Amino acid sequence: MEKIIAFLLLLVTISCTKSNAQKTEFSKEALAETLLDTSDNQVAFETILSKNKGKNTVIEIWASWCGDCVKAMPKIKELQVAHSNTNYVFISMDKTADKWKAGIEKHQLKGAHYMANDQMGGVFAKAVDVNWIPRYIIIDKTGKIVLYRAVETDFEKINAVLNQLEKQ
């Protein structure tokens, strides 16, 4: 019985480690997925990333209906002031383009804006392991993911990562 329990604990540990692992690149599924831009065009995620290559980039996955997202907006704006040479890409999980665009305007979000076509349970969200929003991903100048999973309580960590990237 002890061997069975030990084996099950090992499986749980491996499973949890894999699900929270730091990724350094996006999956082919994520790169191929298209997102809606503010001009109502579909743009491949890979194209969005290539537009930001050469700059450190913060990706925020959010939604206008998300209370934690709205609560974190002053912090993202502070980051934008402190790290003005960093690009900011906002990817919305809103259900309609009208709500998404109204949220951008209402909260005066500065950066590049896109909306997932199939929200939180869709292909893009699953491909980048979104299980909570707001979610932040940081990519360095070379296009490598340096912070894959951060949430609204991780702004000190996000700031520290950006400070480190700016020294490089």
Write the layout of secondary structure elements.
Layout lengths: L1 H18 L8 H5 L1 E4 L4 E3 H7 L5 E6 L4 H16 L4 E6 L4 H11 L4 E5 L6 H5 L7 E5 L5 E7 L3 H13 L1
Parallel strand pairs: 3-4, 4-5
Antiparallel strand pairs: 1-2, 1-5, 3-6, 6-7
Q: How would you portray this structure in words?
A:
The chain has 168 residues and is an alpha/beta fold. It is built from 7 helices and 7 strands, in the order ααββαβαβαβαββα. It has a single domain, classed as 3-Layer(aba) Sandwich (Glutaredoxin), CATH 3.40.30.10. It is globular, with a radius of gyration of 17 Å. It has a 7-stranded mixed sheet. It starts with a helix and ends with a helix. Helix content is 45%, strand content 21%. About 10% of the residues have low confidence. Strand 4, helix 5 and strand 5 form a beta-alpha-beta unit.
Offer a concise description of the structure.
By secondary structure, this protein is of the alpha/beta class. The chain is built from seven helices and seven strands, in the order ααββαβαβαβαββα.
CATH architecture level-2 label: 3-Layer(aba) Sandwich
Query: Which sheet architecture does the biggest sheet show?
Result: 7 strands, mixed
| CATH domain fold name | Glutaredoxin
Low-confidence stretches: 4-19
Radius of gyration: 17 Å
Q: What is the overall number of helices?
A: 7
The portion of residues assigned to helices is: 40-55%
Q: Work out the number of β strands.
A: 7
Domain module tally: 1
CATH superfamily: Glutaredoxin
The CATH C-level class name: Alpha Beta
State the shape: globular
Mean pLDDT: 88
The N- to C-terminal Cα distance equals 52 Å
Side by side, the strands of the main sheet go 2-1-5-4-3-6-7
- Name the helix and strand elements from N-terminus to C-terminus, one letter apiece: HHEEHEHEHEHEEH
